[in-house]
Amino acid sequence: MAESDAEQQPNTPRHVAIIMDGNGRWARARGLPRTIGHQRGAEAVRRTVEASLELGIGYLTLFGFSSENWKRPKTEVLDLMGLLRRYLKSEIAELHEKGVRFRVIGDRGRLDRDIVNLIEQAERLTGGNRDLVLTIALSYGGRDEIAGTARKLAQLVADGALQPEQISEQVFAEQLETADIPDPELLIRTSGEKRISNFMLWQCAYSEYVFMQTLWPDFGKDQMIEAIDEFCQRDRRFGAAVG
């Protein structure tokens, strides 16, 4: 699909979520340290944000670090946290200039305080931007988010602020960390793996999934267009019968 075609598609997804996978395999295939793969992955994030702005995507959510990733070797976790610090220090000003609102979902309690401070500063700085909402999932797990939402609702019931029979899908969704953004229409996973790895389990209930062989450090505008092209060919019926 040509670039102009992608931009003119009436059913281009409003919200794209991506599981960024393959940094380690990319590095291993080249005989390089995994750290280099993660660095190249950060470059792919920059390309993908630019592509999203050019293609008119309003919301981009990236799975940056899962709650399970804390189990990785300590040296790799430290490298990833260092890369995150550098990203927050070097990229936010440019994102702000481009009209990107930056936000983070996930358990911030496990992140170092200086990283949390950088996140909060970035969210304050870019909070009024509307060209693209970039959400990064850090220390995030879909099941943990659902369990946390259930706890919030249970507390509201215990406090008398909510009756059990009032809990609906809408009420539940309003307590999620993504309550202020639409659910993703398109979920992309790179590297050839075909699973969603505990990512946005509630929000992706009706998303279209596109699994790509491309390793994340090689991802860019061409791959985004390819995924959108496949999305645009899907018949999204949401459980309704074919006419």
TrEMBL record:
Substrate binds at residues 22-26, 34, 38, 66-68, 70, 72, 189, 195-197. GO terms for cellular component: cytosol. InterPro entries: UPP_synth-like (IPR001441), UPP_synth-like_CS (IPR018520), UPP_synth-like_sf (IPR036424). Its cofactor is Mg(2+). Its EC number is 2.5.1.-. PROSITE patterns: UPP_SYNTHASE. One of its GO terms (molecular function) is ditrans,polycis-undecaprenyl-diphosphate synthase [(2E,6E)-farnesyl-diphosphate specific] activity. The keyword Chloroplast does not apply. The keyword Metal-binding applies. Belongs to the UPP synthase family. PANTHER family: DEHYDRODOLICHYL DIPHOSPHATE SYNTHASE 2, DEHYDRODOLICHYL DIPHOSPHATE SYNTHASE FAMILY MEMBER. HAMAP family: ISPT. Catalyzes the condensation of isopentenyl diphosphate (IPP) with allylic pyrophosphates generating different type of terpenoids. This is Isoprenyl transferase. It comes from Nisaea acidiphila.
